[in-house]
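User: Could you check the structure of this?
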Amino acid sequence: MSLCRFQQVIKFGKPFLRPVIFNRLKSLSSEAQRQRLSALVYNHARSISSQAAAENSTETDYHSIINDTEKATGESSKFEFQSETRMLLDIVAKSLYSDKEVFVRELVSNASDALEKLRYLRSSENLSVDEGGDRNLEIHIGTDKQNRVLTIQDTGIGMTREELISNLGTIARSGSKAFLEKLKEKQGFDASNIIGQFGVGFYSAFMVADKVEVFTKSYAKDSEGLHWSTDGSGTFEISQAQGVQPGTKIVLYLRQDCREFSDDDMINRIIKKYSNFVGSPIFVNGKKVNVIQPLWTMEPKDVTQDQHAEFYRFIGNCYDSPRFTLHYSTDAPINIRALLYFPDEKPGLFESSTNSSVGVSLYSRKILILSKADAILPKWLRFVKGVVDSEDIPLNLSRELLQNSALITKLRSVLTSRILKFLFDRSVKQTEEFNQFYKNYGFFLKEGIVMSNDTTEKEDIGKLLRFESSTKEAGELVSLPEYCKRLAPDQKDIFYLAAPSRTLAEQSPYYESFKKRNLEVLFCTEPYDELVLMHLARINNHNLTSVEKEMRQNTEAEKADQFESFNKGEVDNLINYMKKVLDKKAFEIKTTNRLESHPCVVTVQDMASARHFIRTQSHQLDENAHYNLLQPRFEINPNHPIIQKLVKISSSDPELAELLTKQLFMNSMVGAGLVEDPRTLLTSMNELLAKALEKY
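Assistant: Sure, the predicted structure tokens are below.
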């Protein structure tokens, strides 16, 4: 964490502590220690801030409609659940949902649907005051930890006696779905705000409760107040009730082992996780909980940068600000509302790990389905944070898992393509900002090329790659499309050279001839760059070719008329001599005119694959198998003084010539990156030095 960020973190704390903490941060040498200290200070500061806010709050911040005035009256009527409900109720309560806490999501979703139905009736039927025409549309939750009671109350449409029997007496009958069926032909109703689909969410209450009561009163004028109750054993009772407010109130009597759900902190956390973005305010014990707006449902022009920053920190659980923001919506080929953020700061160690999850949450109708939705974006896009909401995604009954469907594949494809298009636009319009982003997150893009099986997707990612170029100053990055625009008329390939640094690339024997011919070469100085380009293979109809491969395939490199002082007989004798010395190591030895300042070079059939093999698997082979697999070609430059000297001493001092030949070959193998541990050179180098110094 930077010092600048740390100053932002400690701004919540006591002023006199800031210099002490700031100086302590500067004294820490470990990034991990700085991050731990920053997290501790931030959490402490947030606690201080929350406490201060609580101390400064007034009575006007409190708002609740839960007053426990309801009371069942008269005789109750007893009913049996329909559709083999006892068995289904047991399945819902024990097997359908993987996590008990989702019952809060289901009950809040039902309350939200009740409010949306009343909202529609207000606009379509001009309801009177007695019918809820001016009632605030709200959801209220009350907790009573001492008595293990949880209450959820809404000011929505409510239910009549017939609806109460039908909706709560039959599992898998959705009142919301029936409501939508009636309105199919009507215009002006936003069905996307109705969440219910399956008619089982209410019964999730029995995962945590051994008794459930419902007080309800329909919005219709002169409606009666009703009381519904059951212990989930197979029957339920309905009676009239006094003191019932319009809407619906659900009272859950929690089991002993589920008493944590009567704790307001627990309920607040669950609501913020699953139901923070429902269309109506939610109050817990009189305090509004859902204060963050669902920005992805708004028009992009109506969202401010401050709102984006706040939402990004909420949804991404982070403290920096986004570098880029993609606010995207479409109805074809699939309904998507997405708000995606591209982080500003470098990724952490966990984010860089291939085991980390995608940072995008999946919602359906503003209700959380998956907090880490790995199915809707490829793994290499795990650095993206944000929200994707789609009404079209097929869910299973518990609304926790995506059904196996071609729609998920389509959703993934559309989102990935849109992200790549967005990043390409940023690379053109905001070049400097994109280059900084690429510096931090280019690793993920390269991973995408290696992981993807889609040729078009690979090429779209390839357009985002950046490399240093032999025609540009050090530190200046160019893209592959930019390189293509500068191709010579007769040049078909894009050439690149892998090396640990630009300096070593410019000193490489493989680069000499390209420099002489004024051909642009991209310098791949990051680990696995050449593996990435090997997987990419082509872009804009041009092959990506390593300079080593071009050098090996060039048929003009052996022409003798380009050698200055060339005695063919002597060089042929030297080559034959080298073949004996390098038996079972160099599979071919030849002359080349592509070298000037270097005496020799090694080439193999596919240098990128060979180097990848050396890094990952060469330790499994013995020396002979190693060379047999690589089959290196040893190319010598007869114009170089060392080679010319070697021609003479091969007959006058064969022992020195042998040591020199072996050393030249091993030097070339190291220069080509085909030796896993260059320390193996030390023994042969010391032997050569000892032999050369014998006469002194």
